[in-house]
Amino acid sequence: MKIEKSGTLKLFPTYVWATQLSPETYQPINRDIQSRLEIILGQRPDLRGSGQWQTDQDLHRHPELTGLNQVIMSTARGICDSLTLDYDRIHITGCWANVSNQGYPHKQHIHPNNYLSGAYYVKTAAGADAIDFHDPRPQAGLLVPRARNQDLANPDRITLNVRKGMLVMFPAWLQHSVPPNRSETTRVSIAFNLMFPDFGERMASPLWQADTSTDWS
Ligand SMILES: [Fe+2]
Prior knowledge:
The protein is 20% helix and 26% strand. By secondary structure, the chain is of the alpha+beta class. The protein has a six-stranded antiparallel sheet with strand order 1-8-5-10-3-2. A four-stranded antiparallel sheet has the order 4-9-6-7, with no helix packed on it.
């Protein structure tokens, strides 16, 4: 058999973008976020005893989030540019904190009505340091043969280990979940969504070009 050329085409890839900030960058960011969360927690003492809670979705509007907002925005623009998207503006549409005590998971979900979503990790610990991504192809779950070597090519769920100061971004349609907090400390992450504010006005016209050569006469 003579083969001139052979290759594997990776069609329709699903991207997850991970960024680990350096301590000199994340330490002031985390300090600011913690100070805002302490204010929120102080105003909502009824939530202290619960195992899991989320803040309101306007966290990004508080001045203590300015540092994180800048990191999110520059990463989002880098993502859109790397995908060569023809866009003008993208902005944060919602941002909230997830605080989980021991034993609490976050079930599988997506973030509707946005283009990008993400999470930033303020505080992790062994056993509270992962996010799971699920295969977005529904047909692929029909047959999942056991693989001799687990790598990125064959599982139906991929776990990403996360650390303090890590930013993870992904398409808002990508199913994800968080395993139960198996540590004895509180897990704190900041979740957020991004969308093109002028999507309908600027980006929603049909992708195809009109065939102006058709003759109706
Ligand atoms: Fe989420």
